[in-house]
Amino acid sequence: MALLQISEPGQAAAPHQRKLAAGIDLGTTNSLVATVRSGKAETLPDVDGNHLLPSVVRYRKGEVPQVGTVARQSSIGDPRNTIVSVKRYLGRGLADICKQCTCKEYDFVDSEASVPRIRTLGGDVTPVEISAEILKVLKQRAENSLGGELTGVVVTVPAYFDDAQRQATKDSAQLAGLNVLRLLNEPTAAAVAYGLDRGSEGIHVVYDLGGGTFDISILHLNRGVFEVMATAGNTALGGDDIDHAIGEWMYEQAGMKQAVSDSQSRASLAEAWRAKEPLSDEEVVAISIPCPDGDCWEGELTRSQLYEIIDPLIIQTLSPCKRALRDAGVDVSEIEDVVMVGGSTRSPRVRELVGEFFQCDPMVDIDPDKVVAVGAAIQADILVGNKPDEEMLLLDVIPLSLGIETMGGLVEKIISRNTTIPSAKAQDFTTFKDGQTALAVHVLQGERELVSDCRSLARFELRGIPPMMAGAAQIRVTFQVDADGLLSVTAREQISGVESTVQVKPSFGLSDTEIATMLRDSMDHAQEDVAARTLREQQVEADRILESVEAAVETDGRLLEKNEQELIEAAVKMLHEVRGGDDPRRIKLAIEELNKASTDFAARRMDASIQMAMTGHKVDEFS
Amino acid sequence: MTITLTESAADRIKSFLENRGKGVGLRLGVKTTGCSGMAYIIEFADEVDSDDNVFEDKGVKVLIDPKSLIYLDGTEVDFTKEGLNEGFKFNNPNVKDSCGCGESFTV
Questions:
Q1: Contact A16 B85 (CB under 8 A)
Q2: Distance (Å, whole) CA A29 – CA A9
Q3: In this structure, what DSSP letter does residue A317 have?
Q4: Considering only CB atoms, which chain B residues are within 8 Å of A14?
Q5: CA separation for the pair A207, A353 (Å, rounded)
Q6: Which structural domain, as residue segments, surrounds residue B99?
Q7: Which pLDDT score, from 0 to 100, does residue A111 have?
């Protein structure tokens, strides 16, 4: 029978409707997949018990590509067809790639296309396709472990990934047959794994020292939302450099310049790797490396010697930390905690120096290799709906309110800021003039009350509204923001069904500082904005009533009594005068005055039009 | 009337409860749904309802509502692995027939 997992109270799913979710850490060197089972987030191992899948793909002629450890083993023998660190190429053009590293590593197909292709025995492949091979293996592993198809996944990306790189990541997941619920920033995932999102507001640091890269991120948690304040790093510094440094030191001690052969260099790396671990507890460890003459060099490495070797490398990671703090405008004393990510942060020396720098004990309880995948899995579990609503995380919100322009240059907010996405809201509007057949929709973003103070996102028109009395048409404007922050606005006339729609990306081109400025402005100008809004509203109302009274007098003036006509004319004149002023109270009074003066007239007009409509008919016909 | 847990099931439930940080025990039940009549419910329990039957086995509190107990009496809950997949399994003596996947059953 199927194997069951413990659900949250009241969340047990019907058979065959269990929602399986996974988090995927698609790394430069290694990738992982994790899931939440019976409330516990854990990474999933393969049949051999390995959790890490080397992010290496080897293409062969006429065969399916190899992925993982097998592929990595062949990288020396078959480097041209074995692609390592494909993440560096995701979403980048050939020109960008060449700037960063030598293009000679792989046989790039010379093409003008923006997407680079690598020529392999298995055909020409793009970075998106290569990543998809890695993801397919993880997908298979997750589905075998969970006993069913995945409903959705959360894939992590570095915080500094741009739109193109994120899109490429998403594309490769789709190519692998995965439904991407959301892309999550790696540092945010690590923070989620530690449950920091449930904590108080504050500043958190994520220190990620991987095999080949180093990243530091400063996050600001505000109402459950992580905002990336600054990132910095070094793409050419990682744990592997530490092993190399120890290996080189050993050769120096042995009186050799450097490793003579590949196998020697691998042996020394393996020895370096073996030697550093016991030094966490012991003062000294015996080491031995093979010499060219076939003998072995024997020696020892003390803890203080190890520190001498690795300290310069660890200290190198601290300058990006300083830079990030400076960029974020944050002082060390403001930092609540430091989350450690990446296998190299297992080293007690790294923890010690990082702790000293940030003046706090780093968080190390979760395996630093797995913490990103674990956070992604927790997020995925919530997004597919396996948690009660009250535990729903706010991870993405609309940074500024979205709305449309209404009469008088005012902004009517439809979705207010800090609403979680995805979200959809609708509001009904109507026509302003009799017989109006078109409506211009002006989509705006911002907190201010007047159109001129907000940011214009899009304009479109709804045409083909059937001619009706002013106020009779029902136009429903729907704002929909999807999980990726894409806004679509639809206007639909409810009676005739005519519809028009537009799509925009609200956050496009807005930096965090611009958003902050727009927000600050709205606070600073709150008072005058309200005043301006009230005035405009009264002016619009005045225009509306003036227009209708004047039109009525023109068509049905014969129904007016003399003194009544004088009264109305006086009230109209008065309203015209005050409308141009800036006192909403006086406009309001004048409107009331005109309303009072014209009430009887309006009633008589109504009677007359009913009479006209009924002439020649029997009352029965109307019942 | 009895419900039992295997050693491995009890261990896992205890560790899951501890990891979750709250909860009084495990709630078992059945609901009438699925392709073959009934489906099992296995959930964390945050409180004991007044009409719950409470069993305790190997240090784990198991709560079952009286209606479900009729279908679950004598059941042993096990935690097993099948290849990479792992999870809980109901060894229920009342089951006459279950659907191909075993997610629902009839008595």
A1: no
A2: 39
A3: H
A4: 31, 33-34, 39
A5: 12
A6: 4-106
A7: 60
- Nearest residue on chain B to A140, judged by CA atoms? B84
**What's the token pair of residue B85?**
């997949």
CATH number of the domain that residue B38 is part of: 2.60.300.12
Cβ of A15 within 8 Å of Cβ of B88? The answer is: no
Contact state of A145 with B82 under an 8 Å Cβ cutoff: no
Facing residue for B43 by CB, picked from A3, A7, A146: A7
Give B-chain residues touching A44 at CB under 8 angstroms.
Answer: 84
**Choosing among B35, B40, B78, B84, which should be mutated to test the A contact, i.e. which has the most A CBs within 10 A?**
B84
pLDDT above 80: residue A70: yes
Q: Is residue B88 very low, low, confident or very high in pLDDT (cuts 50, 70, 90)? A: very high
pLDDT of A172-198, one tens digit each?
999 999 999 888 889 989 999 998 877
Tokens found for residue A485: 């922050």
Pairing mode, strands A53-54 and A30-37: antiparallel
Element (H, E) at A523: helix A512-524
Q: What contacts A210, CB < 8 A, 6 or more positions away?
A: A27, A28, A29, A238, A239, A341, A342, A343, A344
In this complex, the residue of B82, B86, B103 whose CB is nearest that of residue A16 is: B103
Strand partners, A458: A443
Residue A208's Cβ-side half-sphere holds a number of Cα atoms within 13 Å equal to: 29
Check CB contact under 8 Å for A12 and B101: no
> What angle do helix axes A526-556 and A562-579 make, rounded to 10 degrees?
150
Strand-strand pairing, B60-64 and B25-32? parallel
Overall domain count for chain B: 1
pLDDT of res. A190: 94
Specify which residues A152 forms β-bridges with. Answer: A21
d(CA B34, nearest CA chain A) in Å? 5
Q: How far apart are CA A84 and CA A106, in angstroms?
A: 10
Residue A452 has, within 13 A of its CA and on its CB side, a CA count of: 6
Residue A306 tokens read as 């190890």
| pLDDT higher than 50, residue A146 | yes
Active site residues of A: 25, 87, 186, 208
Comparing CB atoms, the residue among A39, A46, A141 nearest residue B19 is A39
Question: How far apart are the C-alpha atoms of A381 and A34, rounded to whole Å?
Answer: 10
Distance CA A76, CA A91 (A): 26
CA distance B69 to chain A (A): 17
Give me the mean pLDDT over the A567-595 stretch.
Answer: 86
Does the pLDDT at position A607 exceed 90? no
Element of type H or E holding A604? helix A584-614
Q: Using a cut of 0.80, tell me whether the model's pTM lies above it.
A: no
Q: Minimal Cα–Cα distance from A14 to chain B, Å?
A: 7
A10–B44 C-beta distance less than 8 A: no
Record: contact B104-A9, CB cut-off 8 A: no
Answer yes or no: are the C-beta atoms of A80 and A120 closer than 8 Å. yes
B35's tokens: 């392709």
Q: Kindly list the distances between the CA atom of residue A282 and the CA atoms of A298, A345, B73, in Å, as whole numbers in the listed order.
A: 18, 18, 56
* Subunit contact B35:A15, Cβ cutoff 8 A: yes
Angle CA(B97)–CA(B99)–CA(B105) in degrees, nearest 5?
A: 50
Which residue from A16, A240, A537, A454 is spatially nearest to B34, judged by alpha carbons?
A16
Q: Which residues pair with B89 in a beta bridge?
A: B78
